[in-house]
Automatic annotation (TrEMBL):
Source species: Thalictrum thalictroides (Rue-anemone)
CDD domains from the UniProt entry: REC_hyHK_CKI1_RcsC-like (cd17546)
Domain Response regulatory: start-end pairs: 10-125
GO terms classed as biological process: phosphorelay signal transduction system
InterPro entries: CheY-like_superfamily, Sig_transdc_resp-reg_receiver, ST_Response_Regulator
Name of the protein: Two-component response regulator
Keywords: Phosphoprotein
SUPFAM superfamilies listed in its UniProt record: CheY-like
Amino acid sequence: MASTSNEKMKALIVDDETLIRKMHSKLLQIAGFDTQEALNGKEAVDLCSSGAVFDIIFMDLVMPVMKGPQATRLLREMKVACKIIGVTGQTEADEIKEFREAGLDECLEKPLTHAKISSIIEGLKNTQT
């Protein structure tokens, strides 16, 4: 885990849409997270390979440069062990299946809401204590 019980948990929001990144970042900040944003999967992989550590990553499915499934697969190959939550507006079962198989812990529909992430956040907080 990235954080000790005295520190805020850290979340990475990966999405090419500015409004979605800002909405998700604000939602997580309200829930007590320090947040960082990445515009695409490559930025997320680069951040993690440079030593950045997160408690949770919210990864969009469809982005330019590097899509969510490829980035998730690379992060898992790099032994990134934090929760990776897929976030998508897509409804294509095959695309979502590929995303899950890349190493997601869970996949949620955009936009995130407190109701959608509350059980995930509580699970993370319980592992911190």
